[in-house]
Amino acid sequence: MAKVLSAMLGNSDLSEYGEKKVNTINHSKRLPAIILVDTSGSMNSYEELLKKAVESLYDKILRDRVASNAAELAVMTFNSEIEILERMREVKLQESKGHDLNFHCDGVTLTGLAIKAAIKQLEARIAVYKQSNPHKIKYYPPILFLLSDGYPYCGKNSPIQAQEDAAMKYSKRYIRQEVSSNRMVVISVEVGNECDHNLMRELTGLDDDKHVFKVNNSVELADFFKFTSSIIINSSKTGSQSLNDMSIEDMKK
Q1: How far is Cα of residue 199 from the mean position of the Cα atoms in its chain?
Q2: Helix-strand-coil split of the chain, %, nearest 5
Q3: Which has the closest alpha carbon to 176: 166, 186, 167?
Q4: Cα–Cα distance measured from residue 210 to residue 246, given in angstroms and rounded to the nearest whole number
Q5: 184 CB contacts (<8 Å, ≥6 apart)?
Q6: Residues 36-63, mean pLDDT to the nearest whole number
Q7: pTM score, two decimals?
Q8: How far, in Å, CA of 210 to CA of 204, rounded?
Q9: Both ends of the chain: CA-CA distance in Å?
Q10: What is the C-alpha to C-alpha distance for residues 94 and 58, in angstroms, rounded to an integer?
Q11: 179-213: pLDDT as tens digits
């Protein structure tokens, strides 16, 4: 597990938090994906559910032969800190395989900095694909699943407000550019009714709500993770390049 906030504020190279090697014996076309979870204090009632839902998601991917080879999954959380619970690499090569991850919910909501950290991890992993020997690893457009239950918030008179604002501006611009070029897919998940809906929609890089997933309770949140596993498994086989043309409802079919 790596904490990345101090590195970001110090302008360190975030690639140090990514996996630098790739298994070139595995010739599968990779599907890089990140699950980025808001673990601020207001999410504390979901701690145990998040743990079990991520374990179940991993178990389903691992049971699928194609997906377990093709999917490269990272799990990140954000509150007053930003943490990488699982670095992006092949699911079947991860030590914990999604089990016993700590979703302790406390603190504020550094959404912009967290998304920027996720972007940097994606960029670092794609650079590894391109630089791999003896052959370059092919990959599908990465998928970012963003889950939050409220507005970005640094705290009153926070010394990092300027960095958070700059990171959010950067993330919005980056996502819009990559989604419009079909080089990235973002699905945002609103937990409850306290989210900034316009922001969550904007962070999908689209002009409509078709990649905004709304959940109202624990049952619906668990269903979201089941949906996420199906998207990762299906996209590992057929690719993610068509997802930006599809609504959430279309993806569920």
Answers
A1: 17
A2: 45, 20, 35
A3: 186
A4: 7
A5: 122, 141, 142, 143, 144, 175, 178, 205
A6: 96
A7: 0.94
A8: 9
A9: 35
A10: 10
A11: 999 999 999 999 999 999 999 999 999 999 999 99
Helix (H) or strand (E) holding 120, with range, is: helix 111-131
Tokens 């624990």 — which residue?
218
Q: Helix H segments across 132-242? A: 161-180, 197-202, 218-238
Task: Answer for the pair 183, 31: CB distance below 8 angstroms, yes or no.
Answer: no
Cα 7 from chain centre: 19
* C-alpha to C-alpha distance for 56 and 114, rounded to whole angstroms: 24
Provide the residue type at 221 as one letter.
L
DSSP SS3 for 47: helix
Alpha-carbon separation of residue 52 from 4, 41, 199 (angstroms): 24, 19, 28
Is 90 exceeded by the pLDDT of residue 7?
no
Segment 218-236, tens digit of pLDDT: 999 999 999 999 999 999 9
Q: State the burial class of residue 92 (Cβ atoms within 10 Å of its Cβ: 0-12, 13-18, 19+).
A: middle
